[in-house]
Amino acid sequence: MSTATAMNADELARGQRRERAQFIGLSLPATLLILIIVFLPLFWLSSLSFIDRGGELSTENYQRLAGDLYIEAFVVTFQISAAVTALCVLLGYPLAYWLSRKPQHTANLLLICVLLPFWTAVLVRTYAWLVLLQRNGLINNTLLSLGIIDAPLQLAHNLTASIIGMVHIMLPFLVLPLYATMKSIDGDLVRAAVGLGSSPTEAFWRIFVPMSLPGLFAGVVLVFIMSLGFYVTPALLGGGRVQMLAQRIESTITIFSNWGAASALGVVLLLMALALVALLHRVFGLDKLFVR
Question: Fewer CB atoms inside 10 A, N or C side of the chain?
Fold first, then answer.
């Protein structure tokens, strides 16, 4: 009996080894591809950030980041990202809730409208907002023709225009995970709370909102992290008055030809984004947010 048990254990061990070998063999090409196209450029970028303009190893590029010009770019980047995230929440939560309460076929049609921005290039969408917001744009001309204003408003080439354009681009990234979470919430729970004496508003805030938080947090993380690296929209709609980190990196390369300083900026931005994700993971448990 013991001999048979030992043989079964050996066969089980050999089967597990074969499975591990097959798994490694199947995943090896993808792992090598990720190493080549992701980690190799990151390693090159990190090493380049420690080389000064004289070609020597130095921390000069990182020391320069303590200057007022770079600190201002960091502050502006995080302020804009936070403002865009907050506006997406204010606009996206009611929209996702409204969509989740619609019948499935109606919600599918409305979701197509939410996804329409994905079918147009970011550059085209940004120029569309520029046409709408400029001094001779559609909005100013309409307001002038209606007699609401006497002179064109400065709607473009400022911080407000940059935020408007970014919100338009980032809103679907919050609505989609939030809608998926809201759709999975059983509406009978809210109706049961109302039937037990709770007001509809109280039932919404105490039952529906807490159950929708995983989708909300997932959308907030996506919007904020992606907003940190925006370039085209603030560059065009900001008119040079709004300098985010991506624009500072571009100007450091094109104007000053300083690849080391630009690499240092990129490394710091990446580390800050990773630190933010790690903090959110520790506070909210992001592994639970994206798995329902």
Answer: N
- Rg, C-alpha atoms of the chain: 26
Closest residue by Cα to residue 226 from 165, 151, 170, 289: 170
What is d(CA 204, CA 177) in angstroms, rounded to the nearest whole number?
19
Superfamily (CATH) of domain 68-289: MetI-like (1.10.3720.10)
CA max distance for the chain: 98
The residue written with tokens 């403002």 in the block is 83
**Residue 8: what residue type?**
N
Task: Please give the Cα distance from 286 to 290 (Å, whole number).
Answer: 7
Angle at which helix 259-284 crosses helix 209-227, to 10 degrees, equals 170
For residue 40, give every residue at least 6 positions away whose Cβ sits within 8 Å of its Cβ, in sequence order, or none. none
CA distance 46 to 35: 15
Read off the pLDDT of residues 36-51 as tens digits, 9 standing for 90 and up: 888 888 888 888 888 8
